[in-house]
Amino acid sequence: MARALKDPSEIIDVIQDTLPALYFVFGRAKTEEMAFELGKQWDFTTYEEKQIVKSRIKEAEKENPEMFVHRDRAMLKKLLVQGIGYHHAGLSPALKRLVEGLYETKLIWVLFCTETFAAGVNFPAASAVFESCRKWDGREFRQLLNREFFQMAGRAGRRGFDEQGNVYIQINEKYPDETGFFNESKVEMVQGRLTVSPNTVLSLLMWKSDEEIEHFLKSNFSAFQKRRLLKQTSQKIEEYQKEIENLNKHFCEEKHSYSCPLIRKKLKRELKKLKSRRYRERHGTQARIQEIYQLLDSMQKNKCKKVNCFDASRGIKDIESKLDFLKYKRKQLQADAKQYTTDFYKMRDLLGNLGYIDGRTFYPRGKFALYLHIQEVFITELIFSGLIEDLPGDVVAGILAGVDYTPGRREHVQPPPYDIDVINELRAQLMRMKVPEEHLTWSPVPGYITYAWYNGEDFEHLLNNCSLQEGDIVSIIRREIDLLRQMEKAAAENPALQEKLRDIRRTLDRDQVRVLF
Amino acid sequence: MPQATNDNIIHMDEIKSNKKQSKGRGPRVQGRNKKRPERHQVQQQTDTGPIELDKFQVKAIEAVLNGNNVLVAAPTGTGKTLIAEKLAEKVMGEGKGLVYTSPLKALSNQKYADFKKMFGDEKVGLVTGDITINGDAPLTVMTTEIFRNKCFEDIEDLENTAYVVFDEIHYLDDPHRGTAWEEAILFAPDQVKILGLSATVPNVREMATWIGEVRQCEVLVVEEFKRAVPLEIQWIDPENDLLSKTQAKRQVRKLVDKQKGSIQQLRQQHDKKKRNQTNQQRRGK
Lengths: 517, 285
Hints:
The complex is a heterodimer of chains A (about 525) and B (about 280). With about 525 residues, chain A is of the alpha/beta class. Among the domains of chain A are: about 10-185, P-loop containing nucleotide triphosphate hydrolases (Rossmann fold); about 370-515, CATH 1.10.3380.30. Chain A has helices at about 10-15, 30-40, 45-65, 75-80, 95-105, 115-120, 145-155, 200-205, 210-220, 220-250, 260-275, 275-280, 285-300, 305-335, 340-355, 365-370, 375-385, 385-390, 395-400, 420-430, 445-455, 460-465, 470-490, 495-510, and strands at about 20-25, 85, 110-115, 125-130, 135, 140-145, 165-170, 355-360, 360. In chain A, the strands form 3 sheets. Chain A has a 5-stranded parallel beta sheet with strand order 2-3-1-4-7, with helices on both faces. A two-stranded antiparallel sheet of chain A has the order 5-6. Chain A has a two-stranded antiparallel ribbon with strand order 8-9. In chain A, about 35% of the residues are buried. The model of chain A has no long low-confidence stretch (mean pLDDT about 85). Chain B has helices at about 10-15, 55-65, 80-95, 105-120, 145-150, 180-185, 205-215, 245-285; strands at about 70-75, 95-100, 125-130, 130-135, 140-145, 160-165, 195-200, 220-225, 230-235, 240-245. The radius of gyration of chain B is 29 Å and the shape is elongated. Chain B is α/β, with parallel strands linked by helices. In chain B, the strands form 2 sheets. Chain B has an 8-stranded mixed beta sheet with strand order 4-3-5-2-6-7-1-8, with helices on both faces. In chain B, strands 9-10 form a two-stranded antiparallel sheet. Chain B folds into 3 domains: about 1-50, no CATH class; about 55-225, 3-Layer(aba) Sandwich (Rossmann fold), CATH 3.40.50.300; about 235-285. At the A-B interface, helix 1, helix 2, helix 7, strand 7 and helix 8 of A face helix 4, helix 5, helix 6, helix 7 and strand 9 of B. Strand 7 of chain A pairs parallel with strand 9 of chain B, so a sheet runs across the interface.
């Protein structure tokens, strides 16, 4: 989705009295492009400030000499001196920290950033600018929620500095209908989002009593909300039913007889229809017409106040259609209320079939999976297939990087120098055993990153062998460290394996990848 | 000390004449990049000294220091963390433990660093998926997932814990990660009390009722709707004019209509072209 970018210098021209600004852009490349564009036109810092920025950069470079070398970060270095920056998840931790530090000390006047900058620590600004109000949520581009918007917009307005926080939303000339209009009084409700994962089921069966499990399945927030809704719906249904009863009081005893104007009117309408050109020639029409005449003649028209009756009967019809909808909704809610219980037993049965558990009896696989929190089944099967124990450390490091990883479209990493067919065979086998694919998420793509890193290659080597950005590489390796720690805990009964996993983890946790404080 | 004036903006000519007052921030004429720094804002801090506590903060702090389960909902940047800090002070003073959970690793790391500055290295710990520092400290910062795991796997770790703080508790709504919050609330040990910090959401009270029901306790709600600094939202149209909401809506409608019009025009032109082509073909035959 390449969209023509509007030159941010013009926008800054308009809002130059309310800087510093956070310029929210949805897309990493866009933050960089826009910062570059602005840098062509604007320079915000004084000579003294430039000196300070330069010395700060030098200081940071002392610890990480290569921080500005790759991925066109040299441009960022220039921009920072001009008081312009960008910030997104692709930056290396060191660079992120430098940019944040400069921003905090008021040396950055316009910072192009993605949503992550607002999610974290409080970095207030005088104004917030929205290049667009649509974001990629992992599946599609969608409008920001009110809550998301105000989380970001709320960064505008520094306590003790500004009388108001200025928020600017750009109207895109090509996509004007995508302009965001938000309302703080219509912030979205919080909904329960419980999902029943393999770990949830195992943990419940291992550590919680039957009552507690019942409590969990019936009292979670989503169930609680549905129960409330169900109650409201039932109340509404009752109300409507009462209303119908009340309306029925309008009718007299003769309501169903042929003296009632309501019924006479209905018959007359039918008569008119039958006499029309379309119907009169049809078979049986004449007989019906005669019948109606007889019915109408059989009784005298009741001289009641038919207006009331007509209104009431119309009202009843209205309510009945509403009632039908509510009853349908109630049925659905009742079915939904059982969903968690169904999910729970489904997962329990799957784990039973795979030989993890039998009721509350835990087999070795089940005991292992108990300490895993992502892709529990896949990891456990990897371990019990013996692959992790048999394969050399670097290959294991490579394979584990792909767990729960979905590569981006334009992502390119050098293919790993080991055989990945065994892994795919294992996954295929598990799929045949009816393990849903979402529990077997694995990709060979990031493998080379951790493979090479384990083998002692430097960060530069990684950058030269993939299209990923620094921050992504760090996040791949740190995710694996997280996973390895879970596996180590799970492998408590197998010291050799535990030692191997620990060794991989320690080898990976070094240099640029270490956590900074 | 900078002068406290309402006029935050000093234009270039003023800067020229008041060079000294504006802290030496003069117009820069610098090599290539001299292009447009003509007008430059000079920041003037209208600092009013230490910021006083807001009413809602006072209320929440009082509630929490009296040992209540509390849910606080307030806009971003209104100082919700302060409530947690006061609570941490008190809990640690009593020799008990406090767990502070946050939704993101980066946030946890940041909070850990902040707390360390405030309470000293030995008293603060950090546990996330990929790092553990001083995990037995009385004040431990964790990701919510780790706390949830402890509620199952290592419940004895939480024996001395008096309170758990859920920062950004509205993450309960997150389709992928919300589960961790729910399971943590459902299974946190009975003696652990809850302080939930949330962005403004319309159904905080519903959340409080739920927590009260599942944990069989009373949950107090403290809500603040006002921002510390009010927001002024404006729209910028393609001609770079600043618009109010109504103006912006009108402008958007205009642009959409224009677009529709031009699409229709294009379609008509296209149809005409095609008709001409077919006509010509027919004639050719």
